[in-house]
Design brief:
Length: 266
C-alpha cells in the first residue's frame, strides 16, 4: 500500500487541529477572525470598550464618550483618541442609546439615558472634576425605559424619550424640573432638536413626531413625516408655559406616570 493516503490524512488532521486553536476575535496580526472563518481588518485603530456600545459624543477637549449598554457593566467611558485608550470610566446602574453633550471650552454638560431605571443622568464638568445628579421619571417598575436624549439649549430644555410609554418628557436643563410629558407615536426611540422643534422617531408605527417648541407656535397643514395618515394637533397644557402643538398619531393607551422627582445620583 502506498503511504501517500496516510500522509494526506495526517496533513488534514494537523490542519484541523491547527484550525481548532483559532478562536473568533482579535488575532495577533491585528485582524479579526469571524465565526464564519472570514477575517476582516478594520481601518484605523480599535479601542476596546464595554459590551454593546451604542451612544457616542465628543467633549470640548476633543475626547470621546461612549455608553456601554450590554450584559456586562453599564456606564460611560471616556477615550483619548490620540492615545487610543480609555482614560475614565463611570459605572451606572443602567444605560442605553441616549448620550448628548452641551457646553464648550471645558464647561461640558453630558446627558445620559438611564434605560430601565427610568432616570436621566446629568454630568457637569468643571476643569478636571465632574458632578453628577439624576432626574427620575418614574419608578423602575413602571414601563417607561429612557431611550434617546435630545438637548434643546436654545429653549433651556432636554428631551428624554420614553420608549415603552409612547411619550417624550421635557425637563428644565438647569433645575431638572419637569415641564411636561408629550404623547408621541408608538415605541419612540430617539430624538433630535433644532431651535424650534423636536423630532422623535417612532419605531412602532413607522412615523416621525414633530413637536413645536416655539413661543408662538402654529399648526402647519399637511401630513406627518413618514406616514400617510392625517396629522392630529393637540395643545400641551400647563405646567408648560405656552401652548405648543404636536404632530402625533393614535397609539395604545398610555399610563399616567408619577410626579417628576429629581435627586442626587445614587
Amino acid at each position: 500500500m502506498s503511504p501517500r493516503p496516510w500522509l494526506a490524512v495526517s496533513a488534514l488532521a494537523i490542519a484541523a487541529a491547527f484550525a481548532t486553536r483559532l478562536k473568533p476575535g482579535l488575532l495577533p496580526d491585528g485582524s479579526t477572525l469571524l465565526p464564519s472563518g472570514w477575517r476582516i481588518r478594520p481601518a484605523g485603530r480599535q479601542v476596546t470598550v464595554g459590551t454593546l456600545p451604542l451612544g457616542l459624543a465628543t467633549l470640548s477637549d476633543g475626547s470621546v464618550l461612549v455608553t456601554n449598554n450590554g450584559y456586562a457593566e453599564n456606564g460611560l467611558m471616556r477615550i483619548d483618541p490620540g492615545a487610543g485608550a480609555v482614560i475614565w470610566t463611570q459605572p451606572l446602574a443602567a444605560a442605553w442609546l441616549g448620550l448628548a453633550r452641551t457646553g464648550a471650552d471645558g464647561h461640558d454638560t453630558v446627558w445620559v439615558s438611564g434605560a430601565g431605571t427610568n432616570r436621566v443622568y446629568r454630568f457637569s464638568r468643571r476643569a478636571a472634576d465632574w458632578a453628577v445628579d439624576t432626574a427620575t421619571l418614574a419608578d423602575p417598575t413602571q414601563q417607561l425605559f429612557v431611550a434617546g436624549i435630545a438637548p434643546a439649549p436654545q429653549r433651556g430644555l432636554v428631551a428624554a424619550v420614553g420608549n415603552l410609554s409612547d411619550s417624550v418628557y421635557l425637563l428644565d436643563a438647569t433645575t431638572l424640573a419637569r415641564r411636561t410629558a408629550v404623547p408621541v407615536g408608538h415605541r419612540p426611540y430617539t430624538a433630535v432638536a433644532d431651535s424650534g422643534h423636536l423630532y422623535v422617531s417612532n419605531w412602532g408605527d413607522s412615523s416621525i413626531s414633530v413637536i413645536d417648541l416655539s413661543d408662538r407656535p402654529t399648526a402647519p397643514a399637511g401630513s406627518p413625516l413618514g406616514s400617510g395618515r392625517p396629522c392630529s394637533w393637540a395643545p400641551i397644557r400647563p405646567p408648560w408655559p405656552c401652548a405648543a402643538p404636536i404632530c402625533s398619531w393614535p397609539s395604545p393607551a398610555r399610563t399616567a406616570w408619577p410626579a417628576w422627582t429629581s435627586s442626587p445620583a445614587g
